[in-house]
């Protein structure tokens, strides 16, 4: 008997009575506010930033002001030039040379300040979102959903993407004597640009 | 060969002797507990979430074979190779074979309690595979040759100078570096080249979703994402109990997990893997390793609901003052004390006694496992199976006799009060009296409640 069949057989013999444990209906609980303010507060709580838009700013000028030392600015969106197109990055490893990655997220979650990215936004170069030093995420207020329940219920990406990450602020750790450090192993900063 | 019992109390003694470490450990974990409370108070629906999480998990466990089959079918449809491992040895063999087939010599991995359970590193390394932990805390533990002392914060028992010493030895950094920031940066700089050159990546996983064949991984460092997206070979290993039926159920669990663990609303990264990335290959190993047997234990099967948040550890006064390593097991704290004996009853027979029965673990558990009741039930099972150490057995036996006879009990209590007030310290505080270790004995009372009651209430009652 294969391990698969052995495990399944033991589970069938040992399980509690299924009739005594019905599946509850899908939960949709909590605050249904999907406003920009809620999103921004949640994002900043976890160390994420809003990329400042000054009078007359374009995304390019805002990035130039925020990251004056950036040499390689990789763009994964058609409407922003950058210094490198994501399509021209040949391997997952090569994405490590990137200083700033610019990408558009299909939706954000107001409760958490999370943004979603999948292979569809990253030209199938998923490593780019993690090897870059900084990430700038373009997001539309219209694409905010209230909380985790509504996100999982409403967003088709959870059923279609092979790789789907919710990023909430930058990489972080508190593994050395409990001291919170932002920018641990992945992106050092995450900024949202409202469009 | 007789398996040696883990002597939790003795190991804890060493931990207690080091005041700076003890104080930090106690306060850090209590801080995590308080942050969890703050999050709980923000959400009026908190108790509903816990109930729902518990119901979903119990339903899933009662229907585990069907949901696992559904997961397998969907994952295969999406191009994932699905493997089943009955035990640790089979798990390690499967991983070894996948790596061998690809000629992979360098494996980067994120934290996984299942790979700890299977002691995978010590299987792979003699076979020529270099395994590098990418989670900072787990890496510190790997370099120090220790097991994780906590399931969420593996190196929580260490202070900055400890890490500085370990990094100096392995990364050539300044042994006197006292900045957590620069030490974390040293880890980033040391890890990057290893990540970029790795042949294969491995992750654990927090959840399996039957409906879509997805597995979900939660980290704060993003190291699971680095481990899975940089190399083109991704192996994920998960316990079979990690499954939920529907994608929409994830809302309940993600809302509870990090709030319970660290007191943050969500982990910085919550990643959903449904299939291999472009040009890549993906394997999922479903690990039993005693879980299917545990499902048949009427009093203990609900421990399989655990989502490994560590809230029970953070709140436990015994855990906070004894440290995870004193449990001598992969899983420590209250949850460890109720699941470790299912792996080895004799070896872990002391662990269910590492509790004051205050019930705090049960109260903070996001999936409502009755942890302190199971601790109590384990004590009974271990006594019935004659797995109690000699001293504990004899003390229980004597206490049972004493408490069964009121006259004898009262004489003994009066005697104790006299002893506490008259005996010199060296008689009270020595190896024969474990209650005198690391703590002051209670002040003797002038009168016991019983004799006071006899003098006052009993007489007056009769007079009325």
Give the end-to-end Cα distance of chain B, rounded to a whole number of Å. 69 Å
What gross morphology of chain B would you assign? globular
What portion of residues of chain A is helical?
A: 10-25%
Task: Supply Rg of chain A.
Answer: 20 Å
Structure class of chain B: alpha/beta
User: What does the radius of gyration of chain B come to?
Assistant: 25 Å
| Annotated CATH architecture of the largest domain in chain B | 3-Layer(aba) Sandwich
Q: Approximately how much helix is present in the residues of chain B?
A: 40-55%
Q: Briefly note the CATH topology name of chain A.
A: Rossmann fold
Task: List how many beta strands of chain B DSSP finds.
Answer: 10
Oligomer: heterodimer
User: What's the CATH superfamily of the largest domain in chain B, by name?
Assistant: NagB/RpiA/CoA transferase-like
| Strands side by side in the biggest sheet of chain B | 1-10-7-4-2-3
> What is the CATH third-level topology name of the largest domain in chain B?
Rossmann fold
Domains counted in the coordinates of chain A: how many? 1
Describe this structure in words.
The complex is a heterodimer of chains A (195) and B (464). The radius of gyration of chain A is 20 Å and the shape is globular. The model of chain A has no long low-confidence stretch (mean pLDDT 97). In chain A, the strands form 3 sheets. Chain A has a 6-stranded parallel sheet, with helices on one face. Chain A has a 4-stranded mixed sheet with strand order 8-5-6-9. The longest helix of chain A has 12 residues, at 3-14. Chain A is built from 6 helices and 12 strands. The N and C termini of chain A lie far apart (58 Å). By secondary structure, chain A is α/β, with parallel strands linked by helices. Chain B has 3 domains: 1-42 and 310-390, no CATH class; 49-158 and 199-292, Rossmann fold; 405-463, no CATH class. Chain B is built from 22 helices and 10 strands. Chain B has a 6-stranded parallel sheet, sandwiched between helices. A 4-stranded mixed sheet of chain B has the order 8-5-6-9. In chain B, 49% of the residues are buried. The mean pLDDT of chain B is 93.
């Amino acid at each position: 008997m294969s391990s698969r069949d052995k495990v399944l057989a033991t589970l069938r013999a040992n399980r509690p009575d299924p009739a005594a444990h019905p599946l509850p209906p899908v939960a949709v609980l909590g605050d249904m506010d999907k406003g920009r303010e809620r999103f921004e507060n949640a994002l900043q709580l976890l160390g994420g930033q809003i990329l400042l838009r000054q009078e007359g700013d374009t995304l390019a000028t805002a990035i130039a002001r925020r990251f004056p030392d950036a040499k390689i600015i990789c763009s994964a969106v058609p409407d922003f030039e950058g210094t490198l197109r994501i399509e021209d990055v040949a391997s997952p490893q090569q994405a490590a040379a990137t200083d700033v990655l610019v990408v558009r997220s299909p939706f954000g979650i107001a409760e958490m300040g999370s943004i979603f990215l999948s292979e569809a936004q990253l030209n199938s170069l998923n490593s780019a979102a993690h090897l870059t030093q900084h990430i700038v995420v373009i997001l539309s207020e219209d694409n905010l959903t209230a909380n985790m329940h509504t996100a999982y219920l409403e967003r088709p990406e959870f059923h279609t993407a092979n790789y789907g990450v919710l990023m909430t602020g930058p990489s972080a750790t508190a593994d050395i004597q409990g001291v919170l450090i932002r920018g641990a192993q992945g992106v050092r900063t995450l900024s949202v640009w409202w469009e | 060969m007789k398996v040696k019992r883990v002597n939790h109390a003795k190991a804890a003694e060493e931990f207690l002797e080091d005041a700076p470490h003890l104080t930090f450990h106690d306060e850090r974990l209590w801080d995590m507990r308080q942050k969890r409370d703050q999050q709980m108070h923000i959400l009026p629906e908190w108790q509903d979430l816990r109930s729902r999480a518990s119901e979903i998990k119990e339903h899933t466990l009662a229907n585990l074979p069907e949901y696992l089959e559904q997961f397998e079918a969907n994952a295969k449809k999406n191009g994932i190779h699905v493997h089943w491992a009955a035990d640790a040895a089979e798990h390690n063999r499967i991983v070894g074979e996948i790596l061998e087939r690809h000629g992979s010599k360098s494996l980067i991995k994120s934290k996984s309690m299942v790979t700890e359970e299977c002691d995978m590193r010590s299987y792979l390394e003699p076979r020529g595979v270099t395994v590098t932990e990418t989670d900072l805390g787990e890496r510190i533990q790997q370099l120090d040759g220790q097991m994780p002392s906590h399931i969420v914060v593996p190196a929580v028992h260490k202070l900055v100078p400890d890490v500085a010493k370990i990094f100096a030895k392995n990364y050539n950094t300044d042994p006197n570096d006292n900045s957590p920031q620069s030490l974390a940066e040293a880890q980033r700089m040391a890890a990057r080249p290893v990540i970029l050159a790795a042949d294969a990546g491995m992750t654990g996983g927090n959840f399996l979703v039957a409906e879509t064949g997805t597995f979900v991984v939660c980290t704060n460092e993003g190291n699971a994402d680095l481990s899975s997206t940089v190399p083109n070979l991704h192996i994920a290993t998960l316990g079979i109990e990690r499954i939920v039926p529907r994608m929409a159920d994830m809302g309940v669990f993600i809302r509870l997990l990090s709030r319970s663990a660290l007191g943050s609303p969500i982990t910085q990264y919550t990643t959903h893997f449904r299939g291999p990335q472009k040009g890549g290959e993906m394997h999922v190993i479903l690990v039993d390793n005693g879980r299917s047997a545990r499902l048949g234990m009427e009093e203990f099967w609900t421990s399989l609901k655990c989502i490994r948040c560590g809230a029970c550890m953070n709140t436990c006064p015994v855990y906070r003052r004894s440290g995870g390593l004193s449990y001598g097991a992969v899983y420590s704290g209250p949850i460890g004390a109720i699941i470790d004996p299912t792996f080895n009853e004799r070896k872990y027979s002391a662990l269910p006694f590492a509790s004051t029965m205050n019930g705090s673990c049960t109260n903070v558990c996001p999936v409502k496992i009755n942890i302190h009741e199971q601790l109590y039930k384990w004590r009974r099972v271990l006594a019935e199976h004659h797995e109690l150490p000699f001293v504990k057995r004899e003390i229980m036996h004597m206490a049972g006799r004493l408490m069964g006879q009121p006259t004898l009990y009262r004489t003994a209590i009066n005697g104790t009060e006299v002893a506490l007030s008259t005996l010199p310290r060296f008689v009270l505080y020595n190896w024969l009296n474990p209650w005198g270790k690391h703590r002051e004995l209670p002040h003797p009372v002038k009168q016991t409640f019983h004799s006071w009651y006899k003098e006052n209430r009993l007489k007056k009652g009769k007079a009325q």
